[in-house]
Design goal:
There is one protein chain. The chain has a domain of about 80 residues. The protein is about 30% helix and about 15% strand. It is built from three helices and three strands, in the order αββαβα. β2, α2 and β3 form a beta-alpha-beta unit.
Amino acid sequence: MASQTMAKHQSKGIEGLIFYGFPLHSPAKPGIERAEHLSEVSVPMLFLQGDRDTLARLDLLQPLLVRLHLAKLKIFEGADHSFKFTKKAHISEHEALSLLADESKSFIDSLAENF
């Protein structure tokens, strides 16, 4: 995982990380052990998560990210780990990809402003 590499080596030239559905835990065993290394990452991080993601319960992820001053969380209501939305959300696969791209672009643009 890129974040583990960044936690250990702080690779030059990498100015930020974007996580598309961070796999915090297995569906059968909720926990935060997989994220312990994130406090060692020294670049801004954007976490894009669906609120129905069975690999990252928000009640575990949100408090964890609040403690990380370089982390930002964007929650997609009605989306699962693969960013498939419920029919009730009326968001197609194409629209979902567009939403992810827009958030990613905004984050990248904000990093570029610091150069």
